[in-house]
Design brief:
70 residues; mainly alpha
Length: 70
């Protein structure tokens, strides 16, 4: 399950992007270097992904992460 950490907010954005593109987890994982099971487990909060994994997921969806430190 999710809380309000920055990583969890990013995962919610990934889910939103995937759904906005009308892609199933199966479909998006076909083009990703992340298998379907891992993608699903990240989305539902079963595992704590690395930033590298989240960046790969975003790249697969045609997006990227930009981090700013204030």
């Amino acid at each position: 399950t999710y809380n309000d950490s920055a990583k969890d907010k990013l995962i919610k954005q990934i889910v939103r992007l995937r759904k906005n593109k009308n892609l199933s987890v199966y479909a998006v994982s076909q083009d990703a270097p992340i298998n379907q099971s891992t993608w699903h487990r990240v989305e539902v909060g079963d595992i704590n992904p690395t930033i590298d994994t989240l960046c790969l997921m975003l790249k697969t969806l045609g997006a990227r992460i930009q981090i700013e430190v204030h």
